[in-house]
Structures are given as structure tokens and as C-alpha cells.
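Friendly challenge for the regulars: who can give me the C-alpha cells for this chain first? No prize, just bragging rights.
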Amino acid sequence: MPGAQPDRGADGQAAADLDRADEPSAPSGQGAGDDATPDADDNASSGAHDGDDLVVHFLDVGQADATLLVQGETTVLIDTGRYQADDVVEALTSLGIETIELLIVTHPHADHIGQFDQLVDAVTITETWWSGATTTSLTFGRALDALERSGAAYEEPRAGDAAQVGQLLIEVVNPPVGIELTDLHDSGLAVRVTYGSFRVLFTGDAEAPTERRMVASDPALLEAEVLQVGHHGSRSSTVPEFLAAVSPAVAVYSAGADNAYDHPHPEVLERLQAADVEVYGTDTHGTVAITTDGHNWSVHTGW
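First reply, four minutes later:
Bragging rights claimed.
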């Protein structure tokens, strides 16, 4: 449970084979300028995929976050949307998802952990990763109650941990071991998912100091073809040195149309565009899906 040491079981391993890696390795990816095919098709269905393709669905959940990764029989969900809605559950139902092998909650704010309790009641969750940070919100309380009744294996991974979930390699790049959990953004989980040579980086609501710490720790672990833009495109995040380390071809932010925070902030969009990054947002494109065979990949919108 949050605040407790993770129970790795008798063999010291989590259900998703979570390992401490002093020197985590991942396949080097083809950039968009090589043989990859980052071509947009605004009329394609984001639910469509062939065979063993990985489809990364950046779900349109308003001013919140939820990203669904489906590869073969493997399903990973990163964050669970807003507490006032049920759109994440509806999306999984529409795609016929009945089991989530791994559910990652980056941090316990209500726009990231909001539908955790509904998901526990709607699907089977094999394992869940939380940062270990806590809040006093009613939404967090409902999520904690749901976690306790879910029967899911529970982990609080730290930077340097890595897990193989089906054919997906998931590497943890934040938070570092021993971090204080008082700042929910700074202590939030950030992970890179690799399939073949394709990599996508998720940093939750990590802000500038956290991004700079990740760069100082191991910039090679940040390299990715696709970046989920931190903190919904806020000016608090996506600092130049972090963006240079990631060097993405595509960036996707999750934000609600006409939201009260004015996300995404114009200076972030300008920074991305100046770096020749192709930018998509759920506020303008709806659900954004990226389909890849582990080498070539394409962007689809309009679901």
C-alpha cells in the first residue's frame, strides 16, 4: 500500500518481473528521419491494429491523463483520468479490454487517479504501480479502498527498475530511490516503454527541477521517438535541456478544450515546434493513437 515497502513475494520478484538494473539497456530506435514512418492519418480509427502491433492510445479524457497501450494480449494503462467521469472505463469497454496486466498511477492527484476505483470494478487488474505518495482527497481515499479489494500485486518502483510486460520493456526513470514524497509531481512515476526500436516516454506532471534531475541522472534513458508532454503542456515543464535529451519526433499532450489553466501554454508549443517536433493534443485531435510494429510507426486521430 502507499507509504509501505513493496511486497515482492517469496522469490523477491513482482508479478511483472520487476528488476533493479544498475545499467538498464534498451534497443536503440530508428528516428523519424530514418526508416520509421510517422505519417498522420486523421481519418484512421485509433482502435485499429494488425497482429502484434503496439497501439498507444492517448485517450481524450479532458483535463486529465490516461494512456492505454495494447500489444497482442498485453494491456498497460498509465493513469486513469478524471474523478467526475467514466470515459476511461468506456474506452476500455469499447475496445473489449477485460484485463489490465499493469496499471501505472503516476501520482495521486484526482486528474490522474480519478477512475481507479471504477476500473477495479470493471476489469481485472493484475498489477499496479503507484509512487507511494498520498493525499487526503476523497478521490484518493476511494482509490485506496479499491486497491485494497482489487487483489492486484502492488509495487512502488524507483528509477533504475525495469520490467518486461509481455513484449514491452518498461523502464522507470523517476522518482529516485530515497526521495521525499511530499511533492506529488516531483515524486511521480515516469517511465519509458520500448517495443522493438520504438520508444515512448511518460513523465506525468513532472516539472522543470524533476526533468533536470532526470537529465543529470541518465539522459540516454530519456531518448524516445514519442514524448507525452509533461503536466498537460504547462510552462512548468518541457525545459529545453530535457527536450534535447528526449529528442522526440512526435509529442502528445493531454488537455481539455478551453480548460481553466490555458494548457497547453504557447511557449511550450513554440519550443516543441522550434525543435521540429510534430505536436498533437487531445483538446484539438481527440484521442491520438500511435501504431507501431516496433520499427515503423504512424499517428492516427479522430477516434
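DSSP finds seven helices and 19 strands in the chain. Confidence is low (pLDDT under 50) at residues 3-17, 19-50. Your move, everyone else.
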